Structures are given as structure tokens and as C-alpha cells.
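dude i think i finally got it to work??
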Amino acid sequence: MDWLSSISHINWLAILVAFVSSMVIGFVWYMPAVLGRQWMQAIGKTEEDLKKIDGGAGIWIPMMVAAALTSILLAILIGSLGVHGSVAGGFFALVMAAVFRVGGHVIHNGFAGRPSAVTLIDSGHDIVAMTVAGVIIGAWQ
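look at this
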């Protein structure tokens, strides 16, 4: 099967909603009152340190592109593999997140010597965000 041909059959509204859900989950996840304070402590930064980071769009645009591409690829894979329904879509995305995103965090953070709290917080975010995206996309296939 030519997986690229499935692009014309994906639900772009589902992708948009999945993308927005990812942004909202990230915003809430990393709020100081939720896990942001623990994450900042784990990376050795304060809120003031993060506010001083220069980059503006250079930080947000790549992150948003990556989140959009994740939603698009999930939709392509879910559609191409015949995954139907919210539960199946969510489970598929959870497995993808656990293998590719968590695996990447474990490898890179491990070799970089970062605290395990960074890996756990970032991995938890990716699992939740991708699973919710999979639920949305699977439900709207």
C-alpha cells in the first residue's frame, strides 16, 4: 500500500483538533502548579531563567511544527493501518509514544546525564499528548 496516497483521505479537522489538544496539554503539563516547577528544578532552571531565554519564534515554531507533523503522521498511520475508533487510535498512539518518544528521551537524557525526573516528566507529557491525539484521530477516521 502506498501510504502517501492516504494523505488525501485523512481528516484534517481531526488533525487540527489533535494538534490543538497537544498544545493545550503541553501548556497545562508544564505549568508551575502542575509539573513545571519539578521540571525546572530537574533541569536546574528557574522561571526567571526561562523568561530570559532569547529565541522567541525560534523556540515556538519548531515545537509547533513537530507537534503538527506528529498529528499528521499519526493520522496517516492510523488510516493506512486500518485502525478504527477512539480506543484503538488511542492505544496505537500510546504504543508509538512509548516506543519512539519515551525511548528517545531515555536514550538521549541518559547519555546527557540528565536527571531521571526530566525523562519521566517529558515522557509522561508525550504519552498523554500522543494518546489523546490518537483518540481524536481514531474517533474521526
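The chain has a mean pLDDT of 93.
im so relieved honestly
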